[in-house]
Design brief:
binds pyridoxal-5'-phosphate; 370 residues; globular; three-stranded antiparallel sheet
Length: 370
């Protein structure tokens, strides 16, 4: 978290801990802090304050949007590269009898709006396509997809967890009805997020109870978390354009240096519009897990798309969706930069990674045969 975020949250734990729903001044002060946070989050994406519903994070925002629209049945359209919060929600609904169309992506990881148009059925109720992908950073043609949704008169949800605060987001210009956000992706606290719900959207609440958040999401508000999210949103908006250009330059430098120092590496999604802070590199003849562990020992926290499930390593569904074989997908390495990343840190990665790759490739029975 940014120090300013911690500073904004601390008094909400220690002094202003009234319940925002209480009538007394103590509660009303906490409510006014939440109202301020709502203004900052709304401003970050050019929404109205009444269109922001605070929730427990991106996962809840995605579940709320999808389940809330599909509550009465119908058909859903989504893509093959969604985050698990969307993918598993759609799979769960599929099991309960709601048909889902999974739109494939190009080799660069981009959805074709014409594919979405062709998938529309009379009973379609929702299109849910992410704004930017969390593994490879590719940015989807949201405005074009929104036009398809408007023509067909169906709701359009976009998972904006990765794009919010990283690229300019204007929900009115994008044309979305629902847009998910998560605080911890923009240097705010974990466990808090928001769903933009366009005025007039008919969305069934997931949580029933005291009718908080204009009856959209019951439960006493996470006041410190929301205040922290608000401050993070304010800071993100202030520094967005200049900071992200700096981050893009660092990311480009990282990729070009690694390409010049290590043979047989590729940048996934390189030819598509991409977030400035994400770099997904595929290293032939090296395991992503081995790369991540070796980098960790050097103090570098990176990730690989592969997930360990039932004792075997599952390749990333995003990388297989862009046409990589499971072997190729296993060699992927993801770096996430932020406005706090320094050029010294990038230089350090450029310095340590080549020897790590050499060492892992020596262990590969296939590498020497090249
Ligand atoms: N959607 C995307 C694209 C994400 O990257 C993430 C988290 O990484 C989520 C949803 C889930 O957000 P949260 O961790 O706040 O539940």
């Amino acid at each position: 978290m940014r120090p300013e975020v911690v500073a904004a949250m601390t008094p909400v734990f220690t002094e202003h801990f009234g319940n925002p729903s209480s009538i007394h001044w103590f509660g009303q002060h906490a409510k006014s802090l939440i109202d301020d946070a709502r203004k900052h989050v709304a401003k970050l994406i050019n929404a109205e304050t009444s269109e922001i519903v605070f929730v427990s994070g991106g996962t809840e925002a995605d579940n709320f949007a999808i389940r809330g629209i599909a509550a009465k049945g119908g058909h859903i359209i989504t893509s093959t590269i969604e985050h698990h919060a969307v993918m598993h929600t759609c799979k769960d609904l599929e099991k309960s009898g709601i048909p889902v169309t999974w739109i494939p992506v190009s080799r660069d990881g981009v959805v074709d709006p014409d594919d979405v148009r062709r998938a529309i059925r009379p009973e379609t109720v929702l299109i849910t396509i992410m704004h930017a992908n969390n593994e490879i950073g590719t940015i989807q043609p949201i405005e074009e997809i929104a036009r398809v949704a408007v023509e067909a008169d169906v709701y359009f949800h976009s998972d904006g967890v990765q794009s919010t605060g990283k690229i300019p987001v204007d929900v009115k210009k994008l044309g979305v009805d629902l847009y998910s956000m998560s605080s911890h992706k923009i240097h705010g606290p974990k466990g808090v997020g928001a769903l933009f719900v366009k005025k007039g959207t008919n969305l069934k609440p997931m949580l029933t109870g005291g009718g908080h958040e204009r009856n959209r999401r019951s439960g006493t508000e996470n006041a410190p978390g929301i205040v922290g999210f608000g401050e993070a949103a304010r800071l993100a908006r202030e520094g967005l354009v200049s900071e992200m250009e700096r981050v893009r330059q660092l990311r480009d430098h990282l990729e070009s240096e690694l390409k010049s120092r290590i043979e047989l590496i590729h940048v996934n999604g390189e030819n598509a519009p991409r977030l400035p802070n994400t770099s997904n590199i595929m290293v032939d003849y090296a395991e992503g897990e081995g790369l991540v562990i070796s980098l960790d020992l050097k103090g570098v926290a990176a990730s690989t798309g592969s997930a360990c499930s039932s004792g075997s390593l599952e390749p990333s569904h995003v990388l297989t969706a862009i046409g990589k074989t499971p072997d190729e997908a296993h060699g992927s390495l993801r770096f996430s930069l932020s406005s706090m990343t320094t050029s010294d840190e990038i230089d350090y990665v450029v310095e340590v990674l080549p020897s790590i790759v050499d060492r892992l490739r020596e262990l590969s029975p296939y590498y020497k045969k090249v």
